[in-house]
């Protein structure tokens, strides 16, 4: 009799354990997917327009999300490089100093941004004129960017 009792106990645990493991794996996935679908159906804008998210809306949102998730130093660098097309490097370097003063977390990226501005200044103004704008911004990184682009 012991043999049959052990067999029933062993068989009783097996299917329940398998079902439990299956639920433990599948249930979180189902919950995440249903939550994601619910969020896409909510009208988050507050306007009375349709609350269904279309595929074209999703691509626009993903582009905005990528722009929003860019690192602050990358955003600043791109802004300053674009500004260099309209203003001289002296103005751009002043804006770099102001940005670092406003957001001290950008200080560790200041040198690389200043070097990028220096390299771009050489492309726009040539090496001699670009060097005339050099000043001690971020440990003279602008000047080293000019020198690197010139050599």
What labels would you give this structure?
elongated, single chain, about 150 residues, mainly alpha, 7 helices
Could you please describe the fold and organization of this structure?
- This protein is 76% helix and 0% strand.
- The protein is mostly helical.
- Helix 3 (72-83) runs parallel beside helix 5 and helix 4 packs antiparallel against helix 5.
- The chain has helices at 2-41, 55-68, 72-83, 89-102, 107-125, 127-132, 141-150.
- The mean pLDDT is 77.
- It contains 7 helices and no strands.
- The protein starts with a helix and ends with a helix.
Question: In brief, what are we looking at here?
Answer:
The chain is mainly α and 151 residues long. It has seven helices and no strands.
List the helices and strands and how they pair.
Layout: H1 2-41, H2 55-68, H3 72-83, H4 89-102, H5 107-125, H6 127-132, H7 141-150
Radius of gyration: 30 Å
SSE string: HHHHHHH
Largest sheet, in brief, is: none
The number of helical runs is 7
Arithmetic mean of pLDDT: 77
Beta-strand residue percentage: under 5%
The unreliable regions are: none
Q: What best-fitting shape do the alpha-carbon axes yield? A: elongated
What is the number of strand segments? 0
Helicity level:
over 70%
Task: Supply the helix-strand structural class.
Answer: mainly alpha
Give the termini separation.
92 Å
């Amino acid at each position: 009799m012991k043999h049959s009792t052990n067999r029933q106990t062993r068989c009783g645990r097996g299917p329940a354990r398998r079902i439990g493991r299956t639920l433990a794996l599948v249930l979180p996935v189902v919950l995440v997917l249903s939550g994601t679908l619910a969020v896409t159906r909510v009208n988050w804008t507050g306007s009375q327009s349709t609350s269904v998210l279309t595929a074209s809306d999703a691509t626009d949102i993903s582009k905005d999300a990528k722009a929003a998730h860019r690192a602050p130093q990358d955003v600043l660098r791109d802004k300053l490089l674009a500004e260099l097309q309209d203003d001289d490097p002296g103005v751009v370097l002043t804006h770099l100093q102001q940005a670092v003063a406003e957001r001290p977390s950008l200080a560790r990226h200041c040198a690389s941004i200043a070097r990028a501005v220096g390299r771009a200044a050489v492309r726009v103004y040539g090496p001699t004129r670009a060097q005339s704008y050099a000043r001690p911004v971020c440990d003279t990184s602008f000047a080293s960017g000019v020198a690197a682009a010139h050599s």
